[in-house]
Amino acid sequence: MQKLIRVEPSKCIGCKTCELSCSLKHFDEFAPSKSRIVNEIFMDEAAFVTVTCMQCDEPWCLKACPAGAISKNSDTGVVLVDENQCVGCRTCVSACPFGMIKYAESKMKADKCDLCGGDYPECVAFCPTGCLTFEEEDTPTRSKIKKFATSVKEGHMEV
């Protein structure tokens, strides 16, 4: 079974350590805007929501890419962007229903979570509360995560 980053929202304190560790790993700087994981803070609700690429079973970004730069590793389940093939058209960015593939200005290419290329994900390693874990997926949990992410995207905080 493939491994995914799981998020336990009740443990999140909004510290953004996940964003900082991700941007440091991939861009050698502390720049949350370049992070492949996003931690949103909703002050009025006193809630924190952390989301990253869910490595979809049938990735819309992959289907939308006109250059064939996006693939899904059949062994690990990780959805990858081949920077050599990416033309920077941003079609994949528009296609992702969760907004988890971005356009990296510095590279002029699409950029998304690749679970740290097979290493243990930095965001998980540095999460101080254990909000993030790296575990094998299971269908009920994946369905719950998708429902939660969709609910947040639509502006509903209740799941």
What does this structure look like?
This protein has 5 helices and 8 strands, in the order E-H-E-E-H-E-E-H-E-E-H-E-H. The chain has helices at residues 17-27, 60-64, 91-95, 122-126, 139-153, and strands spanning 3-7, 37-42, 47-52, 70-72, 79-81, 101-104, 109-112, 132-136. A hairpin with a 6-residue loop joins strand 4 (70-72) and strand 5 (79-81). The chain is globular and about 40 Å long.
Topology:
Layout: E1 3-7, H1 17-27, E2 37-42, E3 47-52, H2 60-64, E4 70-72, E5 79-81, H3 91-95, E6 101-104, E7 109-112, H4 122-126, E8 132-136, H5 139-153
Features:
single chain; 159 residues; alpha+beta; two-stranded antiparallel ribbon; 8 strands
Helix amount, in percent?
Answer: 25-40%
The biggest beta sheet is recorded as:
2 strands, antiparallel
Low-confidence stretches: none
| Distance from first to last alpha carbon | 26 Å
Based on the structure, what is the oligomeric state of the protein chains? Answer: single chain
**Based on CA inertia axes, which overall geometry fits?**
globular
